[in-house]
């Protein structure tokens, strides 16, 4: 053995031992916090805390067990979109043929969206001097994947694919787009507690009760998709004729891009927009052969991007509204790691997550530390389900990635949510 080699080995052994002791102490401290909780011990609680600097799990509590992730599913939707879409969102596919412009939707939900305010596709069609032909040939025409949410996927949504019901100046209920008023009827058998418009389960026909219309009445109703609806809506908003064709989407079709991808992802993540989450997966499928489909995007992502998750999972939708989604806390942490690595820009990454005490679904949950936030996380909320998954910075500047999952509790949901905040704040203070 060369001189000094023994000393180096002793130093390495000492460092490894010290490192192991520190990790053990951290694990015991966090374990003590959970054992002392009167709330998280009366139902399924899964927890995983990962230290990216050490590439090591600091603490796990039933972290390998699958649970309903609720809107933490949107983390998987986000990661899928980051892999399948580019920096800008494809808003329209089109070809020109003589005096005609033929176009196909991609599933992009941003056209005239009230918050995204995208007008590129609108302007492109509005300013064209050619005859307009819309083809629905690449779109799924049923409710597959979303019927139970009353949200149906649309190849070319305009204004969120919604109708606005409102009190007209004559005191009668009206609908916008205006052409839908043809399908609005009084229903004397409809007796809601308060005045509201009801859409038929499978068609764009509407009914209202024999009740006075409140002067400030406003209601948003999602519409049943279809080529005829898109054609009529575009004709009204563009102020010129739009025709329907059954032409198949050719490989040489050009693409119009609408908005920056991050603005769409942020709008999905911060307020936890279920419609956008489903529509984003539908949009992702536009990069695959065949018809647009949420299921196609899920299958593609599962086979190509999620094969390294540590535990078995079940994924059914983009938003997390389905109670058939199952991911373990370890898998959620792995998805957060993969998302961080894919974005490869910390500020850009954190901008897409709700900020504790500042924005989104965490705006009122946490308190900032003298105006400085310390948690960026996606929440998840269903009945008897409360979830958090995201990124934490401790008072000492350590960065952690965590998943905190609560299922099947019978106590008030606010108690569970407040306990998650209390525990994550304690970890912030102690580490």
Fold and architecture overview:
The chain has ten helices and 16 strands. It has about 425 residues and is an alpha+beta fold. Among the domains are: about 200 residues, Beta-lactamase; about 60 residues, no CATH class. The strands form four sheets. Strands 2-1-16-15-14 form a five-stranded antiparallel β-sheet, with helices on both faces. Strands 12-5-4-3-13 form a five-stranded mixed β-sheet. It has a three-stranded antiparallel β-sheet with strand order 7-6-11, with no helix packed on it. α2 packs parallel to α8 and α5 packs antiparallel against α6.
What name goes with the CATH superfamily of the domain at 35-81 and 283-430?
A: DD-peptidase/beta-lactamase superfamily
Q: Which stretches are low in confidence, meaning pLDDT under 50 for 5 or more residues running? A: 142-149
Largest sheet: 5 strands, antiparallel
Strand content: 15-25%
What is the string of SSEs from the N terminus onward?
HEEHEEHEEEEEEEHEEHHHHHEEEH
Q: What Rg, in angstroms, do the CA atoms define? A: 25 Å
* Strand-pairing-aware structural class: alpha+beta
Short description:
31% of the residues lie in helices and 22% in strands.
Which terms summarize this structure?
Beta-lactamase; 31% helix; five-stranded mixed sheet; alpha+beta; five-stranded antiparallel sheet; 431 residues
